[in-house]
Structures are given as structure tokens and as C-alpha cells.
Write a structure and sequence with these properties.
Length: 116
């Protein structure tokens, strides 16, 4: 049995699922989503991380950027897709458990663990 692995990755606060793809006819990324991806990519360059190609659990800790009411479940899509597109997670189908909570962090902290 191999030892479990854990990585912590800090990203900016993600855009809501509702604002990722504005097009009705053709699905395309919004300018805000593209800007978020670029900023998250720069942040990732300065962080050590493994590549996960086995079942994992992901815990997201989101820092509230303001006092607006927000649906926590709308915040998972952008970080999940980012972690896949930047090679941290081989495929998001490997996420066997996902949870999120509001926390005292700046932006979004993803804690990725190999599943037991």
C-alpha cells in the first residue's frame, strides 16, 4: 500500500459557475474567467505540487471577498477545471470526494489528497 500524498494549492477567489461561459450560441470563456485562469497560473508557478493520476479527494477553502451572498457549490467548477488543465489532476473524474467551506484564507485554498 502506497503512502497517501497531499498538496495545498492557493488560487485567487474563483468566478462563479454562472459567469464562466457567457455565450448562448457558442460556449466560450468569459474575459473574467480567462483573467482568473492567467492569475491562477502565475500563482501556481510559485508553488510545489505533484501530479495526481489516481482517485483523490479535494477540499476547497474559500475566503469571502465581500459581504455578498454566494452559493458555495457554484465555486467548484473553475478550480477543478484549472487543476486539470494545468496538469495537477490528470482528469476531474478522479475526484471521488469534494467538499468546500468558507474559511479565513485569501482567495481559494485547494487541499488535494490521495483517496484512501
Amino acid at each position: 500500500m502506497s503512502a497517501s500524498r497531499e498538496n495545498k494549492i492557493l488560487m485567487p477567489f474563483p468566478p462563479s459557475l454562472n459567469s464562466l461561459f457567457p455565450g448562448k450560441q457558442r460556449r466560450h470563456k468569459s474575459k473574467a474567467y480567462e483573467a482568473w485562469i492567467r492569475e491562477a497560473g502565475y500563482m501556481l508557478l510559485n508553488q510545489r505540487h505533484d501530479r495526481f493520476d489516481c482517485p483523490i479527494s479535494v477540499s476547497y477553502f474559500f475566503g469571502r471577498p465581500d459581504k455578498r451572498k454566494r452559493d458555495l457549490d457554484n465555486l467548484f467548477k473553475a478550480p477543478n477545471d484549472f487543476l486539470v488543465s494545468f496538469g495537477v489532476i490528470a482528469d476531474d473524474s478522479l475526484i471521488h470526494r469534494i467538499c468546500g467551506e468558507w474559511a479565513d484564507v485569501e482567495g481559494c485554498l485547494a487541499v488535494i489528497r490521495t483517496a484512501d
